[in-house]
Amino acid sequence: xxxxxxxxxxxxxxxxxxxxxxxxxxxxxxxxxxxxxxxxxxxxxxxxxxxxxxxxxxxxxxxxxxxxxxxxxxxxxxxxxxxxxxxxxxxxxxxxxxxxxxxxxxxxxxxxxxxxxxxxxxxxxxxxxxxxxxxxxxxxxxxxxxxxxxxxxxxxxxxxxxxxxxxxxxxxxxxxxxxxxxxxxxxxxxxxxxxxxxxxxxxxxxxxxxxxxxxxxxxxxxxxxxxxxxxxxxxxxxxxxxxxxxxxxxxxxxxxxxxxxxxxxxxxxxxxxxxxxxxxxxxxxxxxxxxxxxxxxxxxxxxxxxxxxxxxxxxxxxxxxxxxxxxxxxxxxxxxxxxxxxxxxxxxxxxxxxxxxxxxxxxxxxxxxxxxxxxxxxxxxxxxxxxxxxxxxxxxxxxxxxxxxxxxxxxxxxxxxxxxxxxxxxxxxxxxxxxxxxxxxxxxxxxxxxxxxxxxxxxxxxxxxxxxxxxxxxxxxxxxxxxxxxxxxxxxxxxxxxxxxxxxxxxxxxxxxxxxxxxxxxxxxxxxxxxxxxxxxxxxxxxxxxxxxxxxxxxxxxxxxxxxxxxxxxxxxxxxxxxxxxxxxxxxxxxxxxxxxxxxxxxxxxxxxxxxxxxxxxxxxxxxxxxxxxxxxxxxxxxxxxxxxxxxxxxxxxxxxxxxxxxxxxxxxxxxxxxxxxxxxxxxxx
Length: 686
Ligand SMILES: Nc1ncnc2c1ncn2[C@@H]1O[C@H](COP(=O)(O)OP(=O)(O)OP(=O)(O)O)[C@@H](O)[C@H]1O
What we know:
It holds the Pfam family DEAD. The chain is of the alpha/beta class.
């Protein structure tokens, strides 16, 4: 590799530069139709044996290298073998982008329209029909289905894919499916013996899949379940490590990208970074460096990819790369498992990720936060596995081989490190207690107590931890319990219409207000039109109302321009309006009139929000700081808030962001008296 990086930076030396040169002599072969591709996948050779084993065993643990064909093929084999019966095959995915893109791929392989035989279901978006037999579903959505169908009787087979990720929802399913399987077996046996002839319940098959799984542990949990291995991968991935460790991973990623771009044959590049901030900063530097390249060099198309990016923008990574361009995808670990991004030949792995962790009150927290940390070996293997899906691939790790060897094998399960509030509520609705469920790894007792306390404070649980009617109503809403509580509180204050509008905006995957750090003055002046003196919640409502008024008369391009001028994210509005429809229909189901609206809505709306956000509130101290009402942390108002630098007696906020300070984001000012009587835990007059 010759030295061509911009800004004349020294090249990064990888441990097998020579090997890289040689490996390009391998051709990926001519492209073949989808069916031929299916037959060539490593898993295809073992198809019959696999079906036989699954038929014979209640639970099967399937291990196979990334790209061997597990996720796309196993559900189709089950269908072809008639194992879906009258029911469906569900395939769970920890991430929505994986569920939607896999469903599209499998629909294409079967030559059917997405939403017919093959569909998907993720939060706020479902593309399925009466004839759907294979459903890719986010783990969270399957948990929600449990609430209305505790035996998941619509499914004949449930495939827990990427089980190694051990998200809270996956662990919840791992535990629930174990007892559901027993109950369904008993029901089916009873039916055979004529005890319950009307029962439509059939036995359930469980398949657990991953490329990087502690298979023995899963097997033990499921009564020594059968472990199967799929051998081999379709295309090789050559892995390179840096010769020496790197100090600045963003800078190193920049250099590695241009080394590939200038020296290597065509093929898109996927760079893994920990979070949105790093992605935005690298995006800017890549674009500015690319502009300075000679005109003869292929153009670069940068596509960011992180969870809070609207789904339509995320979908850009899957669209074909224009000719004479090289796509450079900058992604968090949301692109790490399951997905195939067509065109990606090179992966650059910074070795870093953000991990959600619950900061306990003892450490000044009491909330989930994201911390940057080293990835695990399992993640490194998954990241490398995103190359080599359509032909030979290359993975450049920006850390040494020794550092790789020292990485932890896998991440601590989410159940051991995240807030459990929603899960506790869901279990309560199923008549269970988190403490008594047989989890693969039991949760930390302090987290369970914190969740129970939150649910008690917002009225979901009574004094003996029993589920209240209010709690059951909260669980019906597809949002966090505290947001559901706000909606329910709005009923008493007669402002459900306004509150649902704001909650819909808060539940969207990206923020309504664009926050571009170097344009804060321009943003502040554009936003002043909508500013509500009480703070961000009613400012959001004003902006939404202004948008809707304008949209009544303007066409699509003027609407877009208007949003640009006002630094509003139009996609967030579109998403929020969809969410609003769902929340309105949930209101209908729980007997709430969503049309209830107040002309002067400030007090009723803020009173409703205070009920749900009582744990997310802080009081002004004599020294000018804000101290949490329920907790020990001193928080600052986020600079992006309409209340930044303001001193008001009390604030409520949507979230805390943990950087060099603890910042409250999405802030409104409320009179202290609003806290009176909101919760039984608060002393009078606080
Ligand atoms: N959207 C797609 N476009 C092109 N090829 C695809 C697509 N999805 C899957 N493939 C092809 O099918 C192969 C198998 O994909 P599949 O997701 O089934 O593998 P897997 O074993 O589940 O991998 P992983 O463990 O990484 O999820 C890929 O390597 C790729 O060749």
